[in-house]
Amino acid sequence: MATQAHLDIRNLTMAYGDAVIQENLNFTVKRGEIFVIMGGSGCGKSTLLRHLIGLMTPYEGQILLDGTDLWQASQEERNQLISRCGVLYQGGALWSSMTLAENLEVPLKEYTTLSNKQISEVISYKLALVGLAGFEDYYPSEISGGMQKRAGLARAIALDPDILFFDEPSAGLDPISSRLLDDLILQLRDSLGATVVIVTHELASIFTVGDNSIFLDPDAKTSIASGAPKELLETSTDPRVRKFLTRTT
Hints:
The protein has helices spanning 45-52, 75-82, 100-111, 116-129, 145-156, 175-192, 203-209, 229-235, 239-246, and strands at residues 5-16, 19-30, 34-38, 60-65, 68-69, 85-88, 163-167, 195-199, 212-217, 222-226.
């Protein structure tokens, strides 16, 4: 089961109009692994993420989720596939005018038939999973940046997704909060059995959580390396990959 392909990317080319961002991307994300999309700023990491979660249409190529082509499927089937995904956006993307409980309530009311009592129980459980038990009535402005990220993560797992996507989860966090978030991602992967795809350039996170990875290069406009991050650090001879993985800042 652990080796089954969960997400399969075939000959993917991404473009804005006629401007190609990345081309001929081929990689497989196995069920239950933590897969890292890495590379320097401007290489197209977040653009790739937007393609994987159905927000952008490929210029060419295929995105297969459990063997189904996301963009050859009907709208109804695509919506069903995407509903099995959870996303933690870079800024947390919490509604500032809503409490944490109300933020989590949105997807639960939209996509389930649970009663209000059941929804309240799910919210409390999901917040507890990310270390925010008792914070249901707090507004995002009343908690720290690290807690906001965890609240965003609680919302991302509200519907028990099969696959979780993270866009620069450690952005804006101090080293301690960043490490705590990495530990939480590992715990949730193990407890929920979810597949995790992370976009990041943070080396500490890459080496802590990454089971597998691809490296996007802005000049080559494609992936120039793939494999376990720690193995790439030891074996890659490409100067661009080595420079990225051995930098000190």
